[in-house]
Amino acid sequence: MRVLAAMSGGVDSAVAAARAVAAGYDVTGVHLALSRNPQTYRSGARGCCTIEDSRDARRAADVIGIPFYVWDMAERFHTDVIEDFVAEYAAGRTPNPCLRCNEKIKFEAVLDRAVALGFDAVVTGHHARLGADGLLRRSVDAAKDQSYVLAVLTRAQLDRSIFPLGELTKAQVRAEAAQRGLAVAEKPDSHDICFIADGDTRGFLAQRLGDEPGEIVDAETGEVLGEHSGAYAYTVGQRRGLGLERPAPDGRPRYVLSITPVSNTVTVGPAEALAVRTVHAERPVWTGSPPPAGPVECEVQLRAHGSPVPAVVTLAGDQFTAQLRSPAQGIAPGQAVVAYRQDSDGDIVLGSATITEAR
Fold this sequence. Notes:
Order of helices and strands: EHEHEHHEEEHHEHHEEEEEEEEEE
Shape: globular
Largest sheet: 6 strands, antiparallel, barrel
Active site: 101, 194
Keywords: ATP-binding, Cytoplasm, Disulfide bond, Nucleotide-binding, RNA-binding, Transferase, tRNA processing, tRNA-binding
CATH class of the largest domain: Alpha Beta
Distance between the termini: 48 Å
GO molecular function: ATP binding; tRNA binding; tRNA-uridine 2-sulfurtransferase activity
Strand content: 25-35%
CATH architecture of the largest domain: 3-Layer(aba) Sandwich
Site (Interaction with tRNA): 126, 335
Binding site for ATP: 6-13, 32, 125
């Protein structure tokens, strides 16, 4: 079986490639060049798209003993991830660029090219499991689980995916890397958004969208409390950085409740106003089984590092609705809602959709 190992230059993808070789696959390594100018992306531990990462991936491939190539995906990444990121913020939503990168780059563009070149599957270092039944499950390492950002994958894409690290903790991955003589064994994990060089998301968006002054309004009274230079700098649930001079009459903090791009208004209010019972979403992908004909009792995760919430999920055409059994807070349109079901072997991903409204 010929497989393509996507090698980011980090420890996870290096160990995944090595494990694929040990499993008897015919493995070729590939590093994705995602930046038009790699020097503008983060360096060292702060990114996954640098020249340094490319070199680390090549060295790991040499140690493992597999062929290695670099694929230029910069234009596709710019269009499908960066431009999408900016457009989503401009529309008042809060996107997850890692999720979009998995969907559009690693498991669409890369997988399509791999299959066209005669490969049978793609191997990655994601912390998630694919069981013998083909179902996507959470990693055994809950702190590193990445099933949330993989829940956008279709059944056909999962059938051509291999995740060798799902049964390992991160500590075990590092120990195995050291045992195999991989220099990336102690390389720190990447963090934040790889294409924002200094970590300043607000500044990154301001450069592309410009200043768009608008009002910050109290949800309860309609009073104008202040001004902002761009609604894109805010997200639902945000407390800090609102720039309000006057505190609430009761002295409690205010939070962003909603963003309205048409009027360029940011609406703020008390924490209890963030409580959500119903989540509407679009573009559902159902991978755990055939799409359900009726309501499904399950758990839903509403952001990348959020806790699961018991819910009843229904699908109606292109619409996904989750009725939460207990309220959740700070749910932002643009994020994913991912449905899970538990069995004796852990959590199974049933499906996902993109949140359009939370009430």
